[in-house]
Write a structure and sequence with these properties.
heterodimer, A: 251 residues, alpha/beta, Rossmann fold, six-stranded mixed β-sheet, 9 helices, globular, B: 323 residues, mainly alpha, MetI-like fold, 2 domains, 81% helix, flat, transmembrane (chain B), MetI-like (chain B), transmembrane helix (chain B), Amino acid ABC transporter permease (chain B), transport (chain B)
């Protein structure tokens, strides 16, 4: 098993993955493969293990059984391998998790400077480029607390992109936002998808799923209950559990 | 009934309240046994009458003090907030000076000794405190990280350390280090022993402060840093600690001020720091109180210096909190 990541065609594979919190079976035999440039949306009721699943991919949580392989490198106890994976896998959180003591620009250049050892001038250039892409370059010298929720989440996306990741994980990126700010974040994610980024999104934004997802995965009680193309999944869910969930979501 | 009266006659109620408050202050001052002698000093013609009517004199004195306090309050209320603060400080400081002046101090003696008190005592106190503060901060940081460690051995070491050094009296720790270490073959002189004791003791207290500060930062912060690929030590140094500082600094400032004054305990092993000199210099001419008051004022001035530094650092680490 190599430690160097195959960045050219980075594939994520989970096979037979289990995770328990004490007695609670959070992930139950997860088998999933995500191809390069694929966009996968994971949905399901709360507590179904969606977040746990993507947090296992960059080992914010440790799985206890099964294998997770990212770009040919196995996620496990070996910290060097995990570091290599985290460099290629960006993550956006529900609560943004921006660093409040640093300005927007400093948030964006911190990891490139300290993890990739990129000089400050060059890191700043990269960061300003991404802040332009998420359309908030004028906020670069403000602190996160001075920005709206939607702006903060776009900064969080730019911050992750500054590490030039091959895969982006989104953990309910719009769930903590006021309704009028959801769109600006989703627009950013759509343009990212159109550029060919591999994306795994935990979200309930079904419009977004229809628009960009190649595949929708429905989870319940730690298991993958159903998966399929978005149009097929939303129009004709195969399982009762999924149709019940969708009926509650759409009303 | 009373409630309705207050609502119907708010002005009358307020005046009654003010009057009652004044009466209460008068009663307190009176029952504390205030001497009317100061009226005699201000108004010499009244001293005969005061001698003839001691009880009445006390009452008059108490009423006058209450009235002066009330007028003072009213006068200060007229000023803008900044001047109110300055005014209160000035008045209380003058009162404190009058209090010290009443001890009949020999200022000539103080003037004679103060330069030695500063050049030897303050210098020693300061350098012992500064080194101890630096070492204690390092110990506290390591202790806090150890206390948050999942490694049982490290956690055990940290908890035993904080428990022991918070539990033993500081005086005892100084004796144990100074007199105890030579027993196991390591002879230590007084100043390093003092620094070691102060550092270990305050390091233990500050471990808890640092731990609480680190724990006050939401878990999302370290997750965000970890997901970006930052190592655990980078996460701690670049993300967690700078934010925890806001919580850590005020109680740490307290600890530094307390340590500055507790450094006087080192005088028991014969270190010529401020308190030791204050006691020994005063003894020679039986002018204890002069030296003790002088030393106290010096400690106060040094503490004010620390308070100032604390507020500067606090402002620095709090600047991101703007909206």
């Amino acid at each position: 098993m190599p430690t160097s990541i195959d960045t050219a065609s980075l594939e994520i594979t989970l096979s037979g993955v289990h995770k328990w919190y004490g007695q609670y079976h959070a992930l139950d035999d997860i088998n999933l493969s995500i191809a390069p440039r694929e966009k996968v949306v994971i949905c399901g009721p709360s507590g179904s293990g969606k977040s746990t699943l993507i947090r296992c991919v960059n080992r914010l949580e440790a799985h206890q059984q099964g294998r997770i392989v990212v770009g040919g490198v196995e996620v496990g106890e070996d910290e060097r391998k995990v570091d290599a994976i985290r460099r290629e896998v960006g993550m956006v959180f529900q609560q943004f998790n921006l660093f409040p003591h640093l300005t927007i620009l400093e948030n964006c250049i911190l990891a490139p400077m300290w993890v990739k050892r990129i000089p400050r001038a060059q890191a700043t250039e990269i960061a300003m480029d991404y802040l332009n892409r998420v359309r908030i370059p004028e906020q670069a010298n403000k602190y996160p607390g001075q920005l709206s929720g939607g702006q903060q989440q776009r900064v969080a996306i730019a911050r992750a992109l500054c590490m030039n990741p091959k895969v982006m994980l989104f953990d309910e990126p719009t769930s903590a936002l006021d309704p009028e700010m959801v769109k600006e974040v989703l627009d950013t994610m759509v343009s990212l998808a159109n550029e060919g980024m591999t994306m795994v999104c935990v979200t309930h934004e079904m419009g977004f799923a229809r628009q960009v997802a190649d595949r929708v995965i429905f989870m319940d009680q730690g298991r993958i209950v159903e998966e399929g193309e978005p149009d097929e999944f939303f129009a004709h869910p195969k399982t009762d559990r999924a149709s019940l969930f969708l009926s509650q979501l759409l009303h | 009934m009373i409630g309705r009266m207050i609502l119907t006659y708010p002005d009358a109620a307020r005046r009654t309240g003010t009057f009652l408050l004044l009466a209460l202050i008068t009663l307190m001052v009176y029952s504390l046994g205030v001497s009317p002698a100061w009226i005699g000093m201000v108004l010499p013609t009244s001293s005969e009458w005061l001698a003839a009517n001691p009880a009445l004199g006390r009452l008059v004195s108490a009423v006058m003090i209450a009235v002066i306090a009330a007028l003072n309050w009213k006068a200060l209320r007229q000023l803008p907030r900044h001047w109110q603060i300055t005014g209160v400080w000035l008045e209380l400081f003058v009162l404190l000076m009058i209090f010290f002046y009443s001890f009949n101090l020999s200022f000539a003696f103080i003037a004679k000794k103060i330069s030695f008190l500063i050049s030897q005592g303050v210098v020693t106190t300061l350098y012992i405190s500064v080194i101890s503060i630096a070492v204690a901060t390092v110990i506290a940081l390591l202790g806090a990280i150890a206390k948050l460690s999942r490694n049982g051995v490290i956690y055990g070491l940290a908890t035993f350390y904080t428990s022991l050094f918070r539990g033993l009296p500081l005086l005892m720790q100084i004796y144990i280090i100074y007199l105890g270490l030579p027993q196991v073959g390591y002879v230590i002189s007084a100043v390093p022993a003092g620094i070691l004791a102060l550092s270990l003791c305050y390091g233990a207290y500050m471990t808890e402060i640092f731990r609480a500060g680190i724990e006050s930062i939401p878990r999302g912060q370290s997750e965000g840093a970890t997901a970006l690929g930052l190592s655990p030590s980078q996460t701690m140094g670049l993300v967690i600690l700078p934010q925890a500082m806001r919580v850590i600094i005020p109680p740490t400032g307290n600890q530094f001020i307390a340590m500055l004054k507790d450094s006087s305990l080192i005088s028991v092993v014969g270190v010529w720091e401020l308190m030791y000199l204050a006691r020994t210099q005063g003894q020679t001419e039986f002018r204890h109180i002069e030296m003790l008051i002088t030393a106290s004022m010096i400690y106060w001035i040094l503490s004010i210096g620390l308070e100032f530094i604390q507020s500067r650092i606090e402002a620095r680490f709090g600047r991101f909190n703007v909206r």
